[in-house]
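Following up on my earlier message about iron/sulfur cluster. Here are the inputs again, as you asked, copied directly from the submission form:
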Amino acid sequence: MNSLSGDFFKALGRFCKGLSILKSKHVLMPYIPGYIELYKTGELKKRIKALNDILKECKLCPRECGANRLEGEIGVCQGGAELMVSSVSPHFGEEPPLVGFHGSGTIFLTHCNLRCVFCQNYDISHLGKGHITTSSEMANYMLRLQKMGCHNINFVTPTHYVPQILASLPEAIDSGLNIPLVFNCGGYESLEVIRLLQGIIDIYMPDVKYADGRVAKKYSMSPDYPDVIKSLSPRIYQRTPILISCPNIVLCIEQMSFQS
Ligand code: SF4
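Thanks, got it. Here's what our run produced:
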């Protein structure tokens, strides 16, 4: 840590104490994403293989279509074997802690496993706007966003392309990727996939949509949505850090709680 960032951490610590919003069990430290350590130990490679195997009889999401996507079959989500990306850019409309000063590095994936009839990105999620993207291209997208100063890589609607996205990480890490990964999803996730993502994804941003199965069935063909989100919530949020982005620095505040 250089003296400038050291001073910064001390100043931020004083600031937080001054606000009296934090109880004693908080930690301030430079944040190193977990995927880097998992890559070094070889665990990331194992997880990528396990996730890729799921594509043979796809159960990446609770629809469990069983499509053999590796052989070109497509499921309800319309995703096949190849990764498709719709757009890549710094985004300033996300939640402020993700945006910081230089934006959240969004990568919009084409198609969607939830397919809500009211989707604001209908052309992407339903009409398939986007282009086939190789693993190397995806790695380059992430590195380009990091170079632009983005504070994180924000995968928007990644659920149905998790294995293909992760397959691009080793190349990106080798070339210096070191910012947090955001999983910006519809909340209709497989427990098994979330388990395999543990330690790889730094921030979950599930966009919870339904508490009533009848409504979920009507608008997203997913009557089990409320049950899925309830069973996943503790796993998604438990032990997941709350992150604050600052220029070129990401701070991790763990076990933060607010005084009543
Ligand atoms: S990710 Fe797509 S193909 Fe796989 S189970 Fe879900 S809807 Fe079906």
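One observation from looking it over: The domain at 40-249 is CATH 3.20.20 (TIM Barrel). Hope that helps, and feel free to reply on this thread.
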